[in-house]
Design brief:
By secondary structure, the chain is α+β, with helices and mostly antiparallel strands. The protein contains 9 helices and 11 strands. The strands form 3 sheets. Strands 2-10-4-5-11 form a 5-stranded mixed sheet. It has a 4-stranded mixed sheet with strand order 1-6-3-9, with no helix packed on it. β7 and β8 form a beta hairpin. The chain is globular and about 55 Å long.
C-alpha cells in the first residue's frame, strides 16, 4: 500500500497481518500502473494475476516468423536480433484496418476471458499444458431471453489494452475513455482473449463447480510453452552450484 500512497502505507501498518486485504487496493494499483506509463508506453495491457495468459491464434505464426528472422540474422554474422512482440505488430494491423476517422481515437480494447480447467495433466511442465480444456459453447442451444442474457455474460469485459494518455481511470475489468468520441473496441475471443486458468491453486475444480465443467480440448496456446520454460532458466546461485571435485 505504501507504494501507492505513503498515507495508505501508514494506515496499513496499523492492521494486523491476518486482517489485511491487499486486493482492496487492486483498482488503485492498476490506475497507478496506467498513469506511470503515460508519456512512456503507447499501450498498457492488464493481466490481473499469474493464472492469466494473453492468447491469440495469430501469435504462433508471428513468433515463428520473428524467430526465423533472428536466426537468419545470426547466421549472417549480425548476431541474434531482438524479437518484437507478436502483439505489437498485430495491434498495428488491427488499428490500420479501422476506418481512417477512427484510427487515432481508439482508447480501449476490451478482452474477454476463456476459463481453462478440467482434468489435470500430471506430466505437464507448465500451467499451459496442465489444463488444456475449456468450457462448452455457453450460447449453444439457447434462444430468446436466455440467449440474450448468456450473450451479455459471455461478452462481459475481463481485461483490457489501453492508451494510457486517453483513459481517465480503470475499474479492474473496465476502463473509462478520457473524452466523448473516443473508440472502445471489443476484441472477438477468436482473435484475442485471456486464457484464465481458474483451477490453478484450487483444491477443487472451479471449472466444474462454477461452470459445469471444462471438456473441450483447446491446445492453441501450447506453442508458447517452450518460451515459458526458456524464461525460467536462470544461472544457479553460487550456493546451489555443485562444489568442484578434486582431480
Amino acid at each position: 500500500p505504501g507504494a501507492l500512497m505513503p498515507k495508505l502505507g501508514l494506515l496499513a501498518d496499523g492492521v494486523s497481518a491476518g486482517e489485511r486485504r491487499p486486493m482492496l487496493t487492486e483498482p488503485q494499483a492498476l490506475d497507478a500502473c496506467v498513469w506511470a506509463n503515460r508519456q512512456v508506453s503507447d499501450w498498457v495491457v492488464v493481466l490481473h494475476s499469474f493464472e492469466e495468459y494473453l492468447h491469440s491464434p495469430l501469435f504462433p505464426a508471428r513468433h515463428s516468423a520473428a524467430a526465423a528472422a533472428s536466426t537468419a540474422a545470426a547466421a549472417a554474422g549480425g548476431g541474434p536480433s531482438l524479437q518484437p512482440s507478436p502483439l505489437a505488430g498485430l495491434l498495428e494491423e488491427w488499428l490500420g484496418a479501422l476506418p481512417v476517422e477512427a484510427r487515432g481515437k481508439v482508447a480501449v480494447m476490451e478482452l474477454v476471458q476463456e476459463p481453462m480447467g478440467g482434468p489435470r495433466v500430471r506430466s505437464a511442465r507448465t500451467v499451459l499444458s496442465t489444463w488444456t480444456r475449456k468450457r462448452e459453447d455457453p450460447l449453444r442451444g439457447l434462444s430468446g431471453k436466455k440467449l440474450k442474457e448468456a450473450m451479455e455474460r459471455h461478452s462481459r469485459p475481463f481485461a483490457w489494452i489501453l492508451d494510457p494518455m486517453n483513459v481517465v481511470h480503470t475499474a479492474v475489468h473496465l476502463a473509462q475513455p478520457r473524452a466523448d468520441g473516443q473508440v472502445v473496441m471489443q476484441m472477438p475471443a477468436e482473435v484475442l482473449r485471456v486464457n484464465h486458468y481458474i483451477d490453478l491453486g484450487s483444491n477443487a475444480s472451479r471449472c466444474l463447480k462454477e461452470l459445469g465443467g471444462c471438456e473441450v480440448v483447446d491446445e492453441g496456446i501450447l506453442w508458447a510453452e517452450p518460451e515459458v520454460l526458456r524464461l525460467r532458466r536462470r544461472a544457479a546461485p553460487e550456493s546451489r552450484r555443485p562444489a568442484p571435485r578434486a582431480s
